Amino acid sequence: MIRRLLLLTLTVMVGLGLGLPLCPARAADLFPAVRGHLDNDVLYYITVDRFYDGDPSNNIPTAAFPLEGDLDAPTLAYNRANQALLPHLYDGSHRYVNLYWGGDLAGVLQKLDYLQDLGVTKLVLSGIQDSANSLLYNPGSNGYLYDQVKINQNGADPFYSQASAGFNQVWLKDWFELDEHLRDLTGDQRQPKNRFQILRRLLDEAGDRGMGILLELNLNSTSPYRTDLDYKPFDPHQSERWGMDNGAVYRHGDRVAEYISLTASNSSTAIDPPAPPSPLINPQGWFHEPIPLDYNRPTATMLEQAPINGLPDLNQENPQVAAYLLEAVRFWLNFNPQGVPIAGFYLPSIPNINVEFWQNLEQTVQEVRPDALLVAAYGDGGYRKAASVDWYEKTQDYSLVNYSFSTALRRFFGQDRGWDGRTAVLRESILGKAGRYYNYGSVQRLIHWILNPSESLEIPRHALDVVSEADAKGWVNFVDSPEQPRILSYYPAMTNQAYGSALKFMFASEGVPLLLYGDEAGLAVPHHPQHSGPFGIGGYPFNQQMMIWPGDGGWNDRLHTMTRSLVQLRRDYPVLRYGDTRFLFPANAQADKDLFMVREFEHCTQSPQECPDASRILYAYSTEGGNFLLNFDETQVSSVKDTDLDDPYPVLQGLVPLHLQPEEAKVLVLQSPSP
C-alpha cells in the first residue's frame, strides 16, 4: 500500500509540475484505499474473440483433440466428435455474430503497443477459461450482421444465421484451463508450460508496459446439454444442439461432475417389461434442480437457482462445488509465480449466486492476494438498485460497476431524457450526501416533489448511507458495457459531437472509467431491426463486433485522439478520480439541458496553504449551445487550458467566458495563480 501511495503521489507531482511532496497525512486523505483496490485507473474491456486474430492456427483448433497416441476408446470418440464439430463453430467472414471470429490472446499480445499508447492502465479480458464446443440451432433467431439499415439477407446462410457457438467462453467446462480457441497450440499439449505459455507472455509484457490484466470469471453455470444421443434428421424448423460435454465440469481435463450422464442409466429391470433406459440427471448433486424463472418479476431464489438461458446452474451451496470454484480462484491468483500475476477479477452474474459464496470468495482473495482487484458487475447495480446495495452492504471488498449512473449518462446524451435521463439524476447520483435532496427533511422532499416532480429523485437515503463517499469514487462507470447495446447503435440519431461529450463526461466524473473495446474509435453496428438483443437494438451479441483499426472502415481518428487525451488527462490529474464535485448554474444555462461541473479538492479551496494540489477541472456541456460566463474566485483561477487546445489563456477577475456549439462539451483545466 505504501508503494502504491508513493506512486500516486509522484503522479500528482509530475502531472501538476510540483516540486513539493504531499505530507503523508494529506496524501492519505486525498488518495484513500477503497473497496476493490482500484487506483487512478482507466479500464479497457476486451472481448478476446473479437479483438484481433494473432494466431490463425487456433481458429479451428483440431490440434487440441489429437487422434493419435495412447488414447482410450471414450477419449478417441470425444476427440473425433470435437474435430468434426469445430469447423462449424468458426466464421472467418465475421458475419455470424454467435460464432467464433478468430480473436485470441496472441492478438491481444500483438496490440499491447496500441493499448499502451492509448494510456489505459488495466485490461479486462472476457472469459478465457476452457469452454465446451457446442452448436445450438434456434429457428427464428437472428445472428447475422447486416451492413446497412435495410431488411435483406445479403446472402446470409439460413443455418449459421440461426446458430450459436458460445464464442465468449460463457459455456464453461474447465475453470483451470485456457480455451483452445484462444491459446497457443504448438508443442505437446499435455504439458502445461505449452498450454499456458501465451498467457504468461501476455501478463509479463503488459506488466512491462505498466498495464495489469483482470480476468472475467463466470462462476454461475456450465454448458448446453442433450438428454439423449438420438440425433434425428435435421429439421430447419426444429431446435437442435450438438455437443459432447452436456454441462460437465472438469479440472485440468479430468471430469469431476456431470449434469446429464448419457452413458449411465436409471432404468430398472425389476418391472416387467423393463422400463426404457433414461439418462441420469445431476448424479453428483453439483447443480440446482431446475425451477421456472419469471423474467419480469424474478425472485432472489429464481435468480440464484433457475437455469439462466437454459444452462445448468451450479449449486454453490454444495461444499464440493464451492471448493472447486474457490480453488480455481486460487489457481489464477497464483498463476505465473515467476512473472507478473493477474491484477484481479471482473465478476459477472452477481445476483445469480448466493451472497455467502461471494463472501467466501473475497475471504479467499484476502488470504491469497490481499491487493487483488475485485470488480463486481451486478446488473443494473448502483444507488438506485436496492438489491445491489443490500448485496454491497453484506460484502466487504468489491468495487461495483455503477449501472445506475452509467444508464443515466447514456440516456441523457442520447437525448432520451425521461426519468433516468434527467440532469437531476446525474447531479444527485454524483453528489450523493452532498446533494440537496439527501439533506432535505421529509416535509421539504414532499413539497419539492409536488412543485418540481421532474426533479424528484429515486435514490434511497439508505443507499447513500451504506456506501462511503470514498468507495463510491472507486465504482466503475461506462458509456458502453459488454451486455448493453453500444450507444451509437441504440441511438442512431446521436451525433459524433454528442458521443464525444458523453465520453468526456465519463472521464470528468468521479469513479473509474471503463472503455469497451472500440469505444475510442466509434465502433458500432447499424441500427437495424434484426440487430436486436436482450437490451434492445444493438444489444448482445451485436455489440460484440470485430474491433476496427486505423485504416479500417468506420475508424474515427479524431475520436481516438480525443479519447487518448482524456485518458492522459485522467492520469495527470488525480482530482478527477479522488476529488470532490460541485455544479454551476451560469446565466443563460438551462438546468434541465446543460451541465457545468467542477472537480476539485474542497479542502484545497478552504485552506490552499495546506494543499499543494489545487488543480480544478471544469466540464461544460450545452444541449443547444450558446455563450456562457462563469465566475470564479480570482485568487484561485488565473488561467484556463482547454484540453482540446495546446496553450492556456489568461482569465481576468476570475471570469471564464465559454462558447459551446450544440451538444458540445469542453473540459478545461483551471490553473491557479503562481504563489
Automatic annotation (TrEMBL):
Presence of the UniProt keyword Disulfide bond in the record: no
GO molecular function, one term: metal ion binding
InterPro entries found in the cross-reference section: GH, GH13_cat_dom
Source organism (scientific name): Prochlorothrix hollandica PCC 9006 = CALU 1027
Cofactor: Ca(2+)
Name under which the protein is recorded: Glycosyl hydrolase family 13 catalytic domain-containing protein
Gene3D superfamilies: Glycosidases (3.20.20.80)
Glycosyl hydrolase family 13 catalytic domain boundaries: 45-570
SMART domains: Aamy
